[in-house]
Write the structure tokens for this entry.
Amino acid sequence: MGSSEERAARNELLFREVNTQIEKLEERMGPAPTYPLICECSRADCAVTLYVAREVYHVVRSSQLRFFIAPGHEQPEVEHVVERRPGYTIVEKFGVAAGVVSDES
């Protein structure tokens, strides 16, 4: 895995951590039916907002290999699509990328 792929995986982890903080803030304000999350793709300049149902968020977060991304932001060389939903896609890392996100989680 090259340094650019490793940096991409770390970007994804950073975006996931930001979304974890958003979820915590939303919960403190009272349970909301959806969370406004940022895309967890590897693109450092991505600022797409995703609206994810609270229940879906918690199911996906039960796996450290799964991420929320905007449609079209998939990277088939390091992740496969688990599910496509209106407005976002759920992907799961595999191979070396899975190792990077597992090691950092």
User: Anything to note?
Assistant: The two ends are 18 Å apart (CA to CA). The longest strand covers residues 79-85. The chain has a mean pLDDT of 87.
